[in-house]
Structures are given as C-alpha cells and as structure tokens.
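Hey, quick one: can you model this chain's 3D structure?
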Amino acid sequence: MKKAELRKKLLAQRKNLDEIFVQEASIRAQRHLLADDAWKKAQQVIIYSPIRNEVRTDLLLNSLWDSGRTLLLPRCDEKVGQMSLVQCDGEHELEEGTYGILEPRSHCTVVDYDAPDFTPSLVIVPGVGFDFCGNRLGFGGGYYDRMLHKQAFNHATFVGLAYSFQIVPVLDADPWDQAMHALCTEEALQWL
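Sure thing. Here's the predicted structure for all 192 residues.
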C-alpha cells in the first residue's frame, strides 16, 4: 500500500477511536515507558502534545515536571516548515498554537540546536504509523524528519509512541527518514 493510502487508512482508524479506548490505551502505553530505564535515566526529554486521538502524553509530562528534569516541547513554525524546541516547566506555560497543538507560550526559552548544553537523551515521537524496523509514517510535512537529522540528535534515543494497530509490517523508507530505536504501544515497549 502506498504511503498516502496507508496514511489515510490509519488516520481514519485513529479518528474513530472510542474515547475510553484512547484514555486506557494511552495510560498503558505511557506506563510501559515510565517503567523503562531509558525513561528513568533521561535528563533532557522531547515529547509531543497529542492531537486528533494520538496517544496521550499527560503522564509523561507530569513525571518530568515532578522530577525537575528538562522537558522540551515542539513549537511549529508553519512559514518555514521547521519546529523549534521550547523548554516547558509546567502546564501553565501551554497555549494552543499551530495546527491546534498545545505549545509553550512565546515567553518560554527556545533551544539553540547548536548549543553545547543541548543534549537530548530521549525523544518521544508521534506518528501515523510505524513498522517493525522503526520506520515512521508521519503526516507528510517533514517537521520531525528535519529536526531529528540535526547533529544534536546523534546520541538521542527515539521512541515511537502509537497504538498497536498503527504498527505495520513494512513501510517504504525514504533516505531522509529517521528510524526509531523503540516502539511503545498499549501492549509493550519493544526495543528494535
């Protein structure tokens, strides 16, 4: 199945998910991640704000805020097709931004990708779909592809967070695609 067809099919499936399933599956998926050593050891973590029935991240966000570790959230700049990463110290710093996604407010600190103290250890990545090799199918805008190829991410661990139905046997990978190191669903956290 071509990427566009698969994207349409998986997005339709996700759109039609029952609210109770979304809540329960999100809790289970996040608990798998919270129990893992990669999560426990991570000091600078990048997480997404969910939209349109993506796996929720509220337990992860609260865990980081409670522990005092650094949480970075993306802020989209539609004009240049890039994502900035912004430090977020609590829910009070969030507002609706581009595409209706909760993003850190404009006064929050934007990270310099080239700064020596920018050393992300863990990146929790959303996707429309993933395959068993860690390849990712996104929305098609390339925001994550461009960000994850920056040199500062060379030593980061990428975890795709999704529902189990979003994991497909094989995706066609493009040269610019960045593979995940692990996939986390409501069923398990699987290292690849």
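One thing worth noting: The chain has a mean pLDDT of 93.
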